Amino acid sequence: MREGYEGTGPGAITPDGCAVELYSRLTAGSEPDIIEAAVPAGARILELGSGVGRVTHPLLERGFTVTAVDESAEMLAHVRGARTIRSTIEGLDLGEKFDVVLLASFLVHTGDAEVRRGMLRTCAAHVADGGCVLVQREGADYHVEVPRERVDPGGYTVRILSADPVGDGVNSVHAEYEFPDATWTQTFLARPLTPEQFEEALEEAGLEVAEYLTEDGTWVKAVPATRPG
User: Fold this and answer.
1) pTM of the prediction?
2) Rounded to an integer, what distance in angstroms lies between the CA atom of residue 150 and that of residue 11?
3) pLDDT tens readout for residues 9-24
4) With contact defined as beta carbons under 8 Å apart, do 39 and 132 qualify?
5) Superfamily, domain 26-140+194-224
6) Structural domain boundaries of the chain?
7) Could you tell me if 137 and 217 are in contact, meaning their C-beta atoms sit under 8 angstroms apart?
8) Is 80 exceeded by the pLDDT of residue 140?
9) Percent over 70 (pLDDT), the chain
């Protein structure tokens, strides 16, 4: 387990504290709708941090071609119908370009700034000319409105129990997922980013915001930055 990351509950737990069985139960929510509305029909999508295919499978059903990347073989074993590649995001180098690169699940907020830089460099290296990068950000109140909970239409409860500072602008976030028959917890490190900090991180990787796709600013469409001259 990585330092600062922990998971509890039934089944396999990945190094970043994610429970494979838990993620196989989570619903996709509005993510596929947001993605579909933002990109061309039938686009080739590189999904970074796909997990068990929670979003992969709905995208496949909508006619997209998906390459799913995750560092966990246990997670990728659940993915059906997509090309799968086991790799860290920051270490990925496929030598290919895609219409869409997808970095969801708040991965851009990883506590390690160097890992974030590597993730965004991977996004920039794999997006085709005329393509886009879709990034999911935390909401503005993600670290402050705690504890809080929501009941998912899938019949489970998600709780963010705490978000405690651990230094260098990073918080240790403790989450709980309660199902009728099982409970999982996950502790992970997350770095809040203001919109300005987020856009600076994109710029550093050679990307720029094309538009914010949702009113709350949590979904962003980025493109390769235009070069002067």
Assistant:
1) 0.96
2) 24
3) 999 999 999 999 999 9
4) yes
5) Vaccinia Virus protein VP39 (3.40.50.150)
6) 26-140+194-224
7) yes
8) yes
9) 99
